[in-house]
Amino acid sequence: MAQTLPIVFKEVLQLSNLGIGAQSIGFATLTMESEKYICIRETGTDENNNVVIIDTDNPSQILRKQIKADNAIMNPKEPILALKGK
């Protein structure tokens, strides 16, 4: 009898196809709150820092804010962004 996994994985989107650089995809720069939001911290070469917010229900509407933060996470129920700085 085939053993079923307790978790089902489903690929919803490719961040690189949405314009997110590979250097910004990792545990130190990306957070997920439930299955609703993905927050990515992008660091530019000229200190042009962005927080990118992707709603997985509507991934074509990417929200980019020019914010410098150490961490960023979205509230899963309300459109509230929590930031942590130094």
Secondary structure elements and pairings:
Blueprint (H helix, E strand, L loop, with lengths): L29 E4 L3 E7 L5 E7 L6 E4 L5 E4 L6 E4 L2
Antiparallel strand pairs: 1-2, 2-3, 3-4, 5-6
Question: Mind explaining what this structure looks like?
Answer:
This is Clathrin heavy chain. The protein has a four-stranded antiparallel sheet with strand order 1-2-3-4, with no helix packed on it. It has a domain at 29-77. With 86 residues, the chain is mainly beta. The protein is globular, with a radius of gyration of 15 Å. The protein has strands spanning 30-33, 37-43, 49-55, 62-65, 71-74, 81-84. The chain contains no helices and six strands. Helices cover 0% and strands 35% of the residues.
Helical run tally: 0
The succession of helices and strands, N to C, reads EEEEEE
Please outline the major beta sheet: 4 strands, antiparallel
Helix percentage range: under 10%
Radius of gyration: 15 Å
SS strand fraction: 25-35%
User: Ranges with pLDDT <50 over ≥5 residues?
Assistant: none
